[in-house]
Design a protein that fits this description.
heterodimer, A: mainly alpha
Chain lengths: 493, 44
């Protein structure tokens, strides 16, 4: 069942898509060099930085994953958002790692590593970032397609078509306009997405009484729905992972850190972080609240979907009236498009800047560099489509995102902190951290997929596996750095 | 705890409304400045 009207809601969505495409394509004429293409000429100020960062980090996947957390854990499901908010604000305030990073004027994190650890570490870091990032992003299209087909009331067969349409629109303006198109469309998408989300939240808040919603939560989950430290529903290991993940992603997640690198100076970069930090709480609070609304509705009126992840689109399609539904879908589409475009550009920038550096050695003309970057964005798009079609998601969506993100977050975070603040850190330690950070989460994903080892993977659990990756990358960095012979001492003997 | 979450949600929504209005207004001006700068760079 859905209140979606093709005439009214469809027109709102079509209008939004045409406006975004037009704006995204119009700015492509301003692209002159590769710096304009990848970092919009490093001219981003505070307001545009907030819009771009907020729009990028809020997609349909985020919304569905965080609504699932609200549906399953109540308000305790907002714990990752609280951790992200606090960590981001503190990093913005102190400039921890991001100050030396922006002061250096680099395009990507691996480029920053080259000075301290050499070219091999830069290259290996690029490979790990792209691997983790693409696996992470691999489920975005399927989730976006799932959300839209459900809310449109279309049968399952339309999912692949929906995924291809979303990707084609996003790829078109990202390939042609690069970061500049991403910025312009992010701005529009932030405004549309915010209006849609705010209206949906107020409607749920006014349609269902607060006391009824919270009463239902208390009855079903007890006090644990309001406090993640109570009982083992949410769990201490999950809270620890949320904090580690918050620190690592705020410091090294390429799409997040790109906004600091694209800022016009270091102080602006820090201000963007401080000012956007509450949005990282909103990013969890609002979807989780909508998920809680879905839990209340389906518990009382029945009709819950088979998969908890689909609770949000099913719920919104029923409770939002025609017209508002169109606005929300345009908002969700906006959120998804800005996320996909920024992510495609972020990974292509790492592939070009770091993995392909030994090939082009920064000698290529701007024209050729831009052409190669455009080709990389297109190839990433094709990968996303293929991966999204065949990868079967097991367990929580948020857990999948955490585990795949850990592939690079654990090692990159360790190496970045060491590069900024530990004089004795060296390339042996960095390579050790990369290997350990990569092996643990990938092994866990494989164990989870192979039928004979599934039970073992369940016993370990995704949280303990990811926490061990963070701890052991730190250990590998220290041991590797200590093991490497000191050339000065060798010369003295 | 229920009151705590109600207050938190209201504060979050208020902040979101203020930031949306501020970013919509000032972000548009920033965007125009960036595009003008880039156009000037191209002409020079």
């Amino acid at each position: 069942m859905t209140n979606f009207s093709w005439l009214l809601d469809g027109s709102i969505i079509a209008l939004y898509i045409v406006a975004t495409l037009t704006a995204g394509l119009m700015v492509r004429k301003y692209i002159k060099g590769v710096d304009d293409y990848l970092l919009a000429g490093r001219k981003v100020d505070i307001y545009l930085g907030i819009a771009s960062l907020a729009a990028t980090e809020f997609g349909i996947v985020t919304c569905m994953a965080n609504a699932e957390l609200g549906y399953k854990y109540g308000f305790a499901g907002t714990t990752p958002g609280i951790a992200l908010f606090l960590v981001m604000f503190l990093i913005g305030q102190t400039g921890f790692c991001i100050k030396p990073l922006r002061d250096k004027g680099v395009t990507t994190i691996p480029e920053f590593f080259e000075d301290k650890f050499g070219k091999k570490v830069r290259w290996a870091s690029g490979v790990v970032i792209v691997l983790g990032g693409l696996l992470n992003m691999g489920v975005f299209l399927r989730m976006g397609g799932d959300f839209l087909t459900t809310i449109f009331g279309l049968p399952d067969g339309y999912l692949e078509a929906m995924m291809t349409i979303i990707l084609a629109i996003v790829a078109l303006y990202t390939i042609l306009g690069g970061m500049l198109s991403v910025l312009v469309t992010d701005y529009m998408q932030f405004v549309v997405m915010s209006i849609g989300l705010l209206i949906a939240t107020f409607l749920v808040l006014f349609n269902f009484e607060w006391s009824s919603i919270t009463g239902q939560l208390a009855e079903s989950y007890g006090a644990a729905a309001f406090n993640p430290f109570i009982g083992d529903t949410y769990g201490l290991d999950r809270i620890v992972l949320d904090v580690l993940l918050a620190l690592a992603s705020i410091l090294t997640w390429q799409t997040t850190i790109t906004r600091v690198l694209a800022a016009k100076d270091t102080a602006t970069g820090q201000r963007i972080y401080r000012a956007t930090s509450p949005f990282f709480l909103i990013r969890f609070m609002i979807p989780a609240f909508l998920g809680i609304g879905a839990f209340y509705y389906f518990t009382n009126f029945g009709g819950a979907p088979d998969r908890e992840i689909m609770a949000l689109p099913n719920f919104l399609a029923i409770v939002l009236p025609t017209g508002i539904l169109g606005l929300l879908i345009a908002g969700m589409l906006a959120a998804d498009m800005s996320t996909n475009s920024s992510y495609m550009l972020a990974w292509s920038s790492v592939i070009y800047n770091d993995i392909m550096e030994p090939i082009h050695k920064k000698q290529w003309s701007d024209k050729r560099s831009i052409r190669v970057n455009r080709m990389l964005v297109a190839l990433i798009g094709i990968f996303l489509l293929l991966y999204g079609l065949w990868y079967p998601l097991k367990g929580d969506l948020w857990v999948y995102l955490q585990v795949t993100g850990t592939i690079y977050l654990s090692s990159m975070c360790t190496i970045l902190i060491a590069a900024c603040y530990w004089d004795k850190a060296n390339n042996w330690g960095a390579i050790g951290a990369i290997i350990v950070g990569c092996v643990i989460p990938i092994s866990y994903l494989i164990l989870q997929q192979v039928p004979s080892t599934q039970q073992w993977a369940e016993q370990i659990g995704p949280y303990k596996s990811a926490i061990s990756a963070y701890i052991l990358t730190g250990v590998a960095m220290i041991i590797g750095s200590k093991l490497k012979p000191n050339p000065l001492k060798i010369n003295q003997t | 705890m229920k009151i705590f979450w109600l207050i938190a949600l209201i504060l979050v929504l208020l902040w979101y409304i203020i930031v949306t209005v501020l970013v919509a207004w000032r972000g548009f001006k920033s965007l125009r400045t960036i595009l003008n700068d880039l156009a000037d760079d191209q002409n020079s």
